[in-house]
Design goal:
mainly alpha; 6 helices; single chain
């Protein structure tokens, strides 16, 4: 299996499982972020996790085209950029999340978006 295809499947699985978890456990996700972002180092944790997942995927997957597989490249760029930003400015996540983390239903809605992206990516992989 080519490395880029592995990256696509890895991203699709991450999106699917995380999305289903957001749908099934929105209150726990809300509480996780409330707790994490109440700490001065919470942004560093989010940045480190996001960067460490995004950067290798970005290296492995750089497909730009007019098909659904481009979802993987856009997500890898997003995770890498977000992780870098949070590592360099860890005070940003609490400010960005403040309006959202106290509303568990928003995590459920985000979960639906993640599942839809996962399905789109899987369809794109199957068509390739």
């Amino acid at each position: 299996m080519p490395l880029s295809t592995f990256a696509e499947w890895f991203i699709a699985i991450l999106l699917l499982i995380t999305g289903l978890s957001h749908i099934a456990q929105p209150r726990l996700w809300s509480q996780l972020f409330i707790d994490l972002l109440s700490k001065p180092y919470g942004g560093l944790w989010l940045g480190m996790l996001t960067f460490m997942i995004g950067a290798p995927l970005l290296i492995a997957h750089h497909h730009w085209g007019w098909d659904l597989r481009t979802i993987a490249t856009v997500i890898a760029w997003g995770w890498t950029t977000k992780g870098t930003l949070y590592l360099l400015a860890p005070g940003i996540p609490p400010k960005i999340a403040a309006r959202h983390i106290k509303h568990p239903s928003r995590f459920a809605y985000a979960g639906v978006v993640l599942v839809v992206l996962a399905i789109g990516l899987v369809v794109g992989i199957q068509r390739a």
